[in-house]
Amino acid sequence: MPRDASSEHHSWLLQRHSTLSWRQLRLLFAGLCGPALLLALVFLWWGYWYMLAYALLEMAAVAACLRHHARHAADYDRIDITPAAIIIEQRRARRLRRHTLNPSTTRLLTSPLRLASRDAEVTLAEFLPPSQRQRLAADIASYLR
Questions:
Q1: Contacts of 45 by beta carbon, 8 Å cutoff, 6+ apart
Q2: Where are the beta strands (DSSP E) in the chain?
Q3: Three-state secondary-structure class, residue 122
Q4: How high is the mean pLDDT in each 10-residue block of the chain (145 residues)?
């Protein structure tokens, strides 16, 4: 018996690919900041105390960058298309947003990839490479028709 395409549920889970674990991030921080701190301590020994301040400022900047990376490592977009609704769940850092769109009034826009309805416009897959974004747009477009 042939299946009716309009009654099916279609789902995509798009996740950011992070290859560094927490342990690896800590080792990276130690590897980047350890030599700078050692060099600053040598200069401190010679009487140039302000080099320690610059080294601490550098370590704070590296720590902020690595923390930002770690906070966004679990980002994802989940797209569920049913005949009744399009449900988009997006996680960015600690914020979880959920959008519900009407499939009959929703259209797909590209550059960047967006789903637009009367009520809202949602940008999708910001962290995917362009080739995967195009493939996703083609998949979504085939189910919106």
A1: none
A2: 10-15, 76-81, 86-92, 95-101, 107-109, 114-116, 121-123
A3: strand
A4: 58 88 92 95 94 96 94 92 94 94 91 90 91 92 84
Cβ 14 vs Cβ 77: under 8 Å: yes
Three-state DSSP class for 113?
A: coil
> Nearest to residue 103, comparing CAs of 81, 124, 127, 119?
81
**Can you read off the two tokens belonging to residue 111?**
């550059």
pTM over 0.85: no
Q: Which token pair is 56? A: 């601490």
pLDDT score recorded for residue 42: 96
Give residue 123's region: left, alpha or beta (phi > 0; psi -120 to 50): beta
**Residue 60 confidence (pLDDT):** 97
User: What is each CA distance from 10 to 2, 4, 91, 126, 142, in whole angstroms?
Assistant: 17, 13, 19, 20, 11
Terminal alpha carbon distance of the chain: 22
